[in-house]
Design a protein that fits this description.
The chain is an alpha/beta fold and 286 residues long. 37% of the residues lie in helices and 13% in strands.
Length: 286
């Protein structure tokens, strides 16, 4: 931990979903001043969903500084997405932006086709985009909310992966964003936590299916990370004390999660598949 790592309590703040980085206090640290690349992903091409902000932006920045070109898929947060593109291009790499709704299977297939056309191929697929919302009882969760959560977090992952697999070669990598909620589900995040458990199982099963093809499949399980999802989906008290519940007693910054994705995407991780990498501030996962 560095001296300038933000600690709770945080100022009171609420945002409409899906949230914006520029409205957060303190702003998330994406690694703009700290991440140093060393060519570990030189020449690789990656798709990153939810790459406009949060963990996705930190991964896009790290990948670019490691030598990868990226396609960033996002919903409609154009100002955040433009900042991600600026950071990637500042690192000397190409960034293709693709807004749209990944709940739509046609759009997911278009993302893959666009990446192949614009970047030439796909080496890495990062299934990171997610929807979450907090509820104090199951009665508050509408049928529509349940459906949106699963279509965003699970269905889209299936659509994207199915479309991408024919383009992946020996040594390619799929990395899915799970969560500490897959093992220790928060009752207030019932729908979200349920999808994260499904992501972990999808990852484990897919790793076995694709091993013969030489494609590795892993997931990263973040704990509390300071992203726009937090002030836009959690009640004020939770935002104020966010991260206090883990042994390090603070939330992680997006820059602290990105290195796990870099490792799993590199050729150095050639024997790592079917794994869950925890980035939880000291909270154990099963």
């Amino acid at each position: 931990m560095t001296a300038d790592t933000p600690q709770p309590p945080f100022p009171q703040q609420q945002q409409p979903m899906p949230g914006r980085s520029t409205a957060m206090d303190p702003p998330p640290d994406y690694g703009e001043r700290s991440y140093k690349g060393s060519g570990r992903l030189a020449g690789k091409k990656a798709i990153i969903t939810g790459g406009d902000s949060g963990i996705g932006r930190a991964v896009a920045l790290a990948f670019a500084r490691e030598g990868a070109d990226v396609l960033v898929s996002y919903y409609n947060e154009d100002d955040d997405a433009q900042e991600t593109r600026r950071l990637v291009e500042e690192a000397g790499r190409r960034c293709v932006l693709m807004p749209g709704d990944i709940k739509d299977p046609v759009h997911c297939r278009n993302i893959v086709q666009t990446a192949v056309r614009e970047l030439g191929r796909i080496d890495i697929l990062i299934n990171n985009a997610a929807h979450q919302a907090s509820f104090s009882s199951i009665e508050e969760i509408t049928d529509e909310e349940w459906d949106v959560t699963f279509r965003t977090n699970i269905h889209a992952m299936f659509y994207l992966t199915k479309a991408a697999v024919p383009h992946l070669r020996q040594g390619s990598s799929i990395i899915n964003t799970a969560s500490v909620n897959a093992d220790t589900p928060s009752p207030q995040l019932l729908a979200y936590a349920t999808t994260k458990g499904a992501i972990q199982n999808f990852t484990a099963g897919l790793a076995q299916l694709l091993a013969e093809k030489g494609v590795r499949v892993n997931c990263v399980a973040p704990g509390p990370i300071w992203t726009p999802l937090i002030p836009s989906t959690m009640p004020p008290k939770k935002v104020k004390d966010f991260g206090k519940q883990v042994p390090m007693q603070r939330p992680g910054q997006p820059r602290e999660v990105a290195p796990a994705y870099v490792l799993l995407a590199t050729d150095e991780a050639s024997y790592i598949s079917g794994a869950t990498v925890a980035v939880t501030g000291g909270k154990p996962i099963l």
